[in-house]
Every structure is written in structure tokens, then in C-alpha cells.
Amino acid sequence: MEKMENYKVIGRAGEGAHGYVFEGLDLRTNRTVALKKISINPELSIPKNTIREICALRALKNKNIVKLFEVTSTGSAVVLVMEFLPCSLQEILKKIDLNLSQIKSYSKMLLKGVRFLHFNHIMHRDIKPANLLISPRRILKIADFGLARIYDGQTRQYSHQVATRWYRAPELLYSSKSYTPSIDMWSVGCIIAEMVNKTPLFPGETDIEQLAIVLSTLGTPTEENWPDLKELPDFNKISFTSGPGKPWRVILPLADTITLDLIKKIIIYDGSKRLTAQQALNHSFVIEEPKPARLQDMPDPKNYKEETPHYDPKEFDEIIAEINKI
User: Is CATH 1.10.510.10 correct for 87-301?
Assistant: First the structure.
């Protein structure tokens, strides 16, 4: 454990589901870092999601996964000291339209990160644009491992309340508790489609609406294209009007033939038949022209960082003072 006296808070970077994120300075190296403060009830133990995130980040060393430098804690907070990444893919997608080479480059970096996770038997379970951070060198890195779990191929029961709704695989929407890392690939497919279409593919406002949008887009699932369908916990609890779905050319009108082929091999009902990250990296999408863009031709993240919301200066100073006392 390192002491917080080695760090100086210089600004607020954001606020996650479990705590504040600050931009900080490592006074020993003059390196800019991200300080993720997670408040803890002193009467309770450290939350499981925090322990999972720390364990995952300590174990996973890869170019396309955010780096964890140090961990420090007190009775009231845990602070994760990580590399500072200026913005997320979500912020970039809000402001610019990516060209195909840039889409391929981000997709390739994402797939490499997911391949590394799955090779090491880790399911991320919350891959979405907001959790894909861009480094100053314009490298995409997977972040936020609070929902990550080990997958060893054994029959286990997992929570289905994972993954942000728009990127949640259909087996999760049907409350499956025996899924595989293919749920991450569904999320990847949705993100690639979003980069191409310039809008989220399945933007449901509720879980029921989410499932309805997926089914109306891809068509009513059958035992032929989803053999495990009737075994899903909520299969008989939710009923929708049957339909054939939409042609992929209508779903993704801006996609070229090769990109379309990749996406429709990932976004399918049967998780066992979705492309793996390695298979996707071997797809023509990554290999053929136009090639993935070079890093120098990718968006500069410092130009797309959203301003953090305005806070009362007194409140802001009190939070910083609290952190600096740790």
C-alpha cells in the first residue's frame, strides 16, 4: 500500500457508480495519474466488486487494458491509482464521425484486449463505450473491472444483472445465470455497429423494451438459431409478437459488405456460435483494405474530453482535502 501523501489531487476527472475519479500527480515521478476513490462503510468489509477490480487489474498486464499502479486504503475509502486516460470512446463518438480505418483501429484494439481477458479466463461483463478509455498516445484500453468474474469452463451460476442495458446479451435479458464469455463479444459487436451507424444499435429504456428491440431487429428466436432458448429462466415469462426481423442492410445501412459480415457473425442469439475475439481478429474486416488507421491518424483524446459538471467550489475543496488526508 502506498500513502496518499505521495499524490496530489489536481482536478476532478469524473464520477463512477462506486466513487469519484480525480486527476492526480505522483509527486515522486511527476506522472499524471487517475485516483479512483471508493467509499466504504467502516462497519462493513471491502465490496466484492472493488476486490474483483483490484485483483483483475493486478493480474492483467496488457497494452489494451488500463494499468493499475498502486492501491491505498483507509477505514473509509480505497483509492486505486491508475494511469490517467483523458477520455472515453463514448465521448469521442458523441463529437465526431469515425472513418472506416479509424473504426477498424479501435475495433482491433478492443478485440485484442478482449482476447487477452478471455485467454486468461476473465469475463469483463460490462464492456461499453464509456468503459473504453483512450490514452494520450491514442491507444484504446478496457477499464472498470468491477463486474469482472473468472470463467473456467465449469458449470457455475452467475448474476444476470450485469452489462449496461444497451450492450447486454439476449441470454442475460432472459435471466440466464449459466452464460459464457460470449456475452462480452455481443457487447463488442454492438460497439462496432455503433461506431458504423453513429448511433446505439439497441437503445432500450427498460429491460423489457431492450429485449423487444433486439427481437424486432433480429427476428423472433427459434430453437434452430438458439437451441438453449427454452431453457432460459424467463423464456415463458415474456411474450412478444413474432416477426422475421429486419435485413442486415436495413439494420446497418452505412456498413460495407465486409464490416456487415463481421457484425452479423457476432450479434447472433446462440452465444456458442458468436465469433470469439481471436476469430474476429482473423476476419477480413481487420485484414483487408482500408487497413486499420495508424495511431497518429486516430482522434487526439485531449480534444474530446468532456468538461466535468460544475460543482460548488467549497464542496470540491472538501472532497480534495478528504482525499489528501488519506
Answer: yes
